[in-house]
Amino acid sequence: MAEYFRDFNEQDVLLFIDNIFRFVQAGSEVSTLLGQMPSVVGYQGCYYCTIKRISRQRYLSSSRSFRFNLNYAPTSNHWCQRVKQTLQRYKELQDIIAILGLDELSEEDRLTVARARKIERFLSQPFFVAKVFTGSAGKYVGLVETIRGFNLILSGELDGLPEQAFYLVEVKEIILPTNSGQIGVLPNHAPIALAVDIEKGSDIDPQEAQQTLEIAETNLNKAEGKRQTIEANLALRRARTRVEAINVIS
């Protein structure tokens, strides 16, 4: 239409396209329906030719002006790809995990898998319409907070938390399961845990407590990865506390 006004009506034309992506997306859908081979990034194979042809139209008339400005192309988004790269690497490792298991991966790959799983669960959001199914109240998570959450996950600051803690929450607050329900942990706030499961020192079997301590020490030496080390350390601290309780009584 813009070309018609320029070439046939001999009028100066200003064509403003607020989002060229819609045009490209439509071409991609048509290309998929026609069974054409997509490009590397998933768009139609003639993507670059189409954009160049549109941009070139402004030079095809010497008598009238035609202004076209392309400010955005979907394939030029080459920054902020860490989340995508992490999920893609996790997808590549899934076959190896299914055949050989997670223990056969390198330390770096295990860390990538752990963070990718947290990202997958963080991508879930507590929708308002899903309250009747999840029991969780709906929340609106803004763009800034979403980006901040991804940065915290990818930077490793939240490596010590289980992946279940990221399901249907934002990183402004981490929800952890407990024996009697859930607790919320805010950033830079240490949770206060009250003892609800108390074991008397007189009820502890000394032989069993010593065996548990030896097993905990062995498990700590065999622990691989940050998560296993944390769990083994917690088990060892509990075992030592039980032995110390016996020694105090005796």
TrEMBL record:
Limits of the ATP synthase epsilon subunit C-terminal domain: 203-246
Start and end residues of each ATP synthase F1 complex delta/epsilon subunit N-terminal domain: 162-199
Subcellular location: Membrane
Keywords noted in UniProt: ATP synthesis, ATP-binding, CF(1), Hydrogen ion transport, Ion transport, Membrane, Nucleotide-binding, Translocase, Transport
InterPro entries noted in UniProt: ATP-synt_VA_C, ATP_synth_F1_dsu/esu, ATP_synth_F1_dsu/esu_N, ATP_synth_F1_esu_C, ATPase_alpha/beta_chains, ATPase_F1/V1/A1_a/bsu_nucl-bd, ATPase_F1/V1_b/a_C, ATPsynth_dsu/esu_N
Reported function: Produces ATP from ADP in the presence of a proton gradient across the membrane. The catalytic sites are hosted primarily by the beta subunits.
Family matches, as CDD domains: ATP-synt_F1_beta_C, F1-ATPase_delta
Entry EC number(s): 7.1.2.2
This protein's name: ATP synthase subunit beta, chloroplastic
Record-linked PANTHER family: ATP SYNTHASE, ATP SYNTHASE SUBUNIT BETA, MITOCHONDRIAL
Family: Belongs to the ATPase epsilon chain family. Belongs to the ATPase alpha/beta chains family.
Domain ATPase F1/V1/A1 complex alpha/beta subunit nucleotide-binding: 1-54
Main localization, broad class: membrane
One cellular component (GO) term of this entry: mitochondrion
Bilayer topology term: Peripheral membrane protein
Gene Ontology MF annotations: ATP binding; proton-transporting ATP synthase activity, rotational mechanism
GO BP terms, alphabetized: proton motive force-driven mitochondrial ATP synthesis
Domain ATP synthase A/B type C-terminal: 81-145
Reaction equation(s) it catalyzes: ATP + H2O + 4 H(+)(in) = ADP + phosphate + 5 H(+)(out)
Quaternary data: F-type ATPases have 2 components, CF(1) - the catalytic core - and CF(0) - the membrane proton channel. CF(1) has five subunits: alpha(3), beta(3), gamma(1), delta(1), epsilon(1). CF(0) has four main subunits: a(1), b(1), b'(1) and c(9-12).
Entry-linked Pfam families: ATP-synt_ab, ATP-synt_DE, ATP-synt_DE_N, ATP-synt_VA_C
